[in-house]
Every structure is written in C-alpha cells, then in structure tokens.
Amino acid sequence: MSIQSNLNAKVRDLVERQIAEGQQLGVQVCAYRYGEPIVDVWAGTMGPNDDRPVQPDSLFLSFSTTKGVAALALHMLADRGQLDYDELVTRYWPEFGQNGKERVTVAQAMSHQAGLHAVRQPHSIAFVEDWDGYVKWLAEQPPAWEPGTATGYHALTYAWIVGAIVQGASGRHIKDFIRTEIAEPLGIADEMYVGIPDGIEDRLTTLKAAAPPPPDSPVAKIPPDHDFFKAMPAQSDFTFNDMRLRKACVPSANGHFTARALARMYGALANRGEVDGVRIVEKDAIPRMQRLMTEDVDRVLMMAIPKGIGFFLGGYRGQFRSPFGPRITAFGHSGAGGSVAFADPEVGLSIAVTLNQMQSTLQGEGPTFEICELIREELGVA
Questions:
Q1: What is the pLDDT of residues 243-278, one digit of tens each?
Q2: For the chain, what is the radius of gyration of the CA atoms?
Q3: CA 165 to CA 89: how far, in whole Å?
Q4: How far is CA 172 from CA 77, 163, 190, in A?
Q5: pLDDT tens-digit map of 112-161
Q6: How far is CA 119 from CA 64, 123, 133, 135, 223, in A?
Q7: What digits encode the pLDDT tens for the residues 30-73?
Q8: Are 7 and 379 in contact (CB under 8 A)?
C-alpha cells in the first residue's frame, strides 16, 4: 500500500477549498493505514505575514496535540516494566505527596482527575521556562477537588505532571526521552520537537489567532472565575509565536510537528505498535492506551469527554462526534485551534492535521473534522 492517489487528490481539493474560503491559511494532512502512508498533503502559506508556501517539513506549533506524544513516552515506560499506571504518583515523584495528593495514582493524574488544572500565577513566560520551579510548585499545590472524584482538563499543568512522572520512572528528561525513544527510532527526529532547538527557525510556521467568539457564543458567556480560565488564562505576558515559548519544554502545549511525523507515530500505534519494521511498543500495550478512565463532564471544558491515560478517546462528546471518529477505541489528542493526531487501531488508521490559522475550537471541530471525516468516508470506516 502507498499514497492513494484518488484519496490524496480529494483531500487536497478539500484543503485548497478551505484555504480559498478563508477557513485555513497553511495546513498539512497525513494519514497511514496498516503501517503505510495513504495521504500526504500540504498547502497554503507559512503565516499571516509570511507568504512562503508550506512545505512537507514545515513545523506547526500544535498545542495540546503535544499531550499525545508525551503520553506515548509514559506508555512506553509502562510497556518496558518501568512504570505501573495504578501505582501512586509518589513512587516516581515523591515530592508530589503533599496537601491531599498522597493517594493519587498515575492513571488518575494522567486522566485529568488530580484537581491540578489551575496554572501558576501570574501566567508568565518566566514560569513556563522554569521547569524545575514549576514541578516544585505543582508538587506543593492542594487539589481543587478530591482526586478521582471529578475530572477537569489540566490544559497546561499536564506538562509538568507527565514530565515529572516520566523523569522519575526513567531518570531522563521527557524532552530527551521523546527525541531518543520516539522521534529518532521512527526517523522523524527533525520533525518532532517539544521545545525547538536553534537553527530551524526558517521552518516555523506562524500562527494566526482565532477571531474573538461572538458575544452570544457559549465561550463568550463563560464567567471570568470559571475553571476554564484557571486552566487556560486569557491573559499572559507572551504570545503563541513568542520564540521563548517555542524554545521552552512544555509537553502539554508547545510541540512543533509536521503532520507526517504525527501520522507516522500514530501509524505505528494503529498497526499493533510497529511501522516499517520499527517497533515502539509491544502489541499488548495498545489496549492499555485505550483504557477508559472517565467520561464524566469535564469541569474545565464543560463537556463529557472520554479520557484514557494521557490520551482522549474517540466516540461522542455529548452530541458531538470526536474528530477521532465513532469508535471509542480510537485515541490521540487534539489541540487548541484545530490540530489533531490519533490512532484508530480497529481499522488500522492514523490521521494527523497541522495548521496555522486557529479556529475557535478546542476539540478539532470545523475544518479539521471535515478533513478527518472525508478520509474515513472514502475508506468506508466512518
């Protein structure tokens, strides 16, 4: 199996239509089926003030799509026997056991049930850059609810939670683990970064912020003291395109990827853990990635989202279908503004979409969903 010319052409036509209609600026789409690439499309421009055409190796800041890459690091450690999901976080991060968090398990923390959604204030670039300081601060925080009794999206704080657990279990910084254990073996080391190095600035796309939500929209009606804004503050001293933010390591929110890299990673997971002869996990690890931890209404996102250990799951989120498709056994992560990457092992499919014109969406609705749905429909797996 190789790039399917008819399907690829249909995806390209859709993406070019979205660009012509102003729904997209620059975008990449890649999909794998049973370990082989079937879609590889790139189109549009690098940014609102950068008319260079998007290339296959252009890098897109993909927000929470980063969480899926970080989650894989944790699952790889479990697959190797270095970590147990049902162990207490304190086994790997002893300092975490303070102020009511002593009994939190890894699985609970990684499914947003630890009550640590609120970010460090003020929401500043100095705090984001201070890895050790943020880990220490989080370890000292009391949970907002009794852990395990509710779920609330740890939109940013997930970074230091997963990072501290991975470092405690492996002895290695998560940034290094992702590069040497995921990106390099898969041949995508130059297309998968959580914190960019010097020397690749010319490959960075520039994000265009979404328009403010209409006054009558649900988001515009969220009160300023809601958990939504505690997790994702409206104000900070940095912007999405700030180079300091791009260079920091924030494995919840600042991954820079190509769609090819993400689709290849998830392509392995959709293909029993292996792609092109490279095995990143044993096949028995995949069901553990599909383990449903909670589908309660999320206190931050205000919708019921099926959550696994580090991943979101497919199926339905209230009345809305996930961009991952109809099967709850699909898993991955979407990012603010519309990026998405996931595996659907039941049908051997992975899809990744990276983009730079942010939509008013948190869960890949709109143009991204349309792309994913077209691919599923054409393959007969919608």
A1: 999 999 999 999 999 999 999 999 999 999 999 999
A2: 19
A3: 7
A4: 11, 9, 20
A5: 999 999 999 999 999 999 999 999 999 999 999 999 999 999 999 999 99
A6: 15, 7, 13, 12, 17
A7: 999 999 999 999 999 999 999 999 999 999 999 999 999 999 99
A8: yes
Active site members: 64
3-state DSSP of the chain: CCCCHHHHHHHHHHHHHHHHCCCCCEEEEEEEECCEEEEEEEEEEEECCEEEECCCCCEEECECHHHHHHHHHHHHHHHCCCCCCCCEHHHCCHHHCCCCCCCCEHHHHCCCCCCCCCCCCCCCHHHHHCHHHHHHHHHHCCCCCCCCCCCCCCCCCHHHHHHHHHHHHHCCCHHHHHHHHHHCCCCCCCCEEECCCCCCHHHECCCECCCCCCCCCCHHHCCCCCHHHHHCCCCCCCCCCCHHHHHCCCCCCEEEECHHHHHHHHHHHCCCCEECCEECCCCCHHHHHCCCCECCECCCCCCECCECCCCEECCEECCEECCCCCCCCCEEEECCCCCEEEEEHHHCEEEEEEECECCCCCCCCCHHHHHHHHHHHHHCCC
* Burial class (CB within 10 angstroms; exposed 0-12, middle 13-18, buried 19+) of 99: exposed
Token pair for 46: 């690098």
Instruction: Report the amino acid identity of residue 254.
Output: N
| CA pair distance 280, 301, nearest whole angstrom | 32
pLDDT at residue 361 in the model: 66
Asked if residues 257 and 183 have their Cβ atoms less than 8 Å apart, the reply is no
